[in-house]
Design a protein that fits this description.
It is built from nine helices and six strands, in the order H-H-E-E-H-H-H-H-H-E-E-H-E-H-E. The relative contact order is 0.10. By secondary structure, it is mostly helical. The N and C termini lie far apart (52 Å). Strands 2-1-5 form a three-stranded antiparallel β-sheet. A three-stranded antiparallel β-sheet has the order 4-3-6, with helices on one face.
Length: 224
């Protein structure tokens, strides 16, 4: 695109100006090498753009342990599986970015009382998994903040709520409404069609395991 082309030209022009000033053969060699690196990076199109920042394939990291286990158990399908994992990583990054922008800390403050109650409720599970206090705190904070945001989302946008094993009260239509608003405002764009299809699939009707509206209750978290 025009942006990438201009980016390459500007990068190389800066390099050549440096070479002209140095006027040495070694500088010419270094400049040619560095310019090729600039071009290589510039040629890589971002998969998505979130709040003005591009997201590239290398930004979608998978834990080394997960990659090693996947390669061991599914050597032939390894590349495809990792690609699918990256699509899920992108989805999480976009959703977290949108929620963090829509609900900054001065709008939703983490409820420390709920964090303490979450840790008490799942104390035995944390002990069985031999999780450190740091990991326990991070999990509790993440779950509480997610519930607080989803409660606020439902109160603002309403819509259908679905049951998921990982989250018994998922305000799926409220999520869809917010994400579509951000997309329409150009605050995030998923350039790669395959990644976009995977991202939007959960937010596209028909929804499964829809909870009757009279049974939707965000008065207290599901774990209490």
């Amino acid at each position: 695109g025009r942006y990438m082309g201009n980016h390459k030209v500007r990068g190389c022009m800066r390099m050549w100006r440096l070479v002209i000033n140095l006027k040495t053969v070694s500088a010419w060699v270094v400049a040619i090498y560095l310019c090729s690196i600039i071009n290589a990076f510039a040629d890589e199109a971002p998969i998505a753009t979130l709040l003005g920042s591009p997201i590239y394939s290398n930004d979608l990291t998978i834990e080394n342990k997960v990659k090693a286990e996947t390669k061991k158990n599914y050597p032939k399908q390894y590349a495809d599986i990792i690609e699918e994992m990256k699509k899920q990583v992108l989805a999480k990054q976009v959703i977290e970015g949108v929620l963090g922008d829509f609900f900054p800390q001065d709008v939703i403050t983490l409820d420390s009382t709920l964090v303490a109650k979450f840790k008490a409720r799942f104390k035995n599970d944390f002990t069985e998994q031999a999780l450190s206090d740091t990991d326990t705190n991070e999990i509790a904070k993440e779950q509480v903040l997610q519930w607080q945001r989803e409660k606020a989302l439902y109160e603002k946008f309403g819509g259908r709520v679905i049951f998921q094993q990982s989250n018994p009260l998922t305000p799926i239509e409220a999520y869809a409404t917010l994400l579509k608003q951000y997309q329409q405002q150009g605050k995030f764009v998923i350039h790669d069609k395959d990644y976009a299809d995977v991202f939007w699939a959960p937010f596209t009707p028909p929804f499964t395991h829809v909870i009757p509206s009279e049974n939707v209750n965000f008065t207290a978290p599901w774990w209490l």
